[in-house]
Design brief:
Blueprint lengths: L1 E6 L4 E7 L2 E8 L11 H6 L2 E6 L13 E4 L20 H10 L5 E7 L2 E8 L3 E9 L1 H10 L21 H27 L3 E6 L3 H8 L4 E2 L3 H8 L1 H4 L2
Parallel strand pairs: 1-4, 4-5, 6-9, 9-10
Antiparallel strand pairs: 1-2, 2-3, 6-7, 7-8
Helix pairs in contact: 2-6, 3-4
Length: 237
Amino acid sequence: MQLAIDAGNSGIKYGLFEKNKLLINGRIPLGGSLKSKIDKKDFEKIKTIISCSVLDNLKISDLPQGNHIKINKDSIFPFPINYESPDTLGIDRIVACAGVYSNDSDILVIDAGSCITYDYVKYNKGYRGGAISPGIEMRFRSMSNFTDKLPFISKFTKSPEVLGTTTKSCLMSGSINGIIYEIKGFIEHFNSKSSSLKVFLTGGDSIFLGTELKSAIFVDQNLVLKGLNSLIHLNEV
């Protein structure tokens, strides 16, 4: 079995794989225990751990024994990376692209989390770059933090009407509909550059946004974990 770990500043996502099949996945806090989440028999079967992290050290109290592959900018990917500042490129962005890379189509990976990242890979030229913008909560929080009277919107269940009739509904329209129009604009732009574009949406807000976008998008919240698992054969020692 293989264990994929995506470690961020606020927590650690994990996925247990049997070859290419994701068996279980979840999240633990920094310093948390994997044994509390994974069955003992399965835990003992883990032979390979593959991880990407923004942290200097994986903050897991009981990392299993096994071959540990740490993915970074110097790792092997299925495509060349064309980026002027590779040291600042979030490794999870590249890993997500690796998970859906194809030899016959261009890909646009949209990760809707704290920030929304857009990453574009041309199948015959490699990773070309992308864009970063604020996510849903960041937009709500910034408008509340940087003004005296605008409230913080903490809950929403669907995209609001474009024309807001209260301050709250105006904030929701500007933030949520603004993101939806933004994503549609990026997809339209890259479709104009590619005759074979496939669009993938991942991240914490991907299910919500995927439903609201109503377009030909592949939605997968576990894209980074699956990308990590796909990189094992390229980076095994």
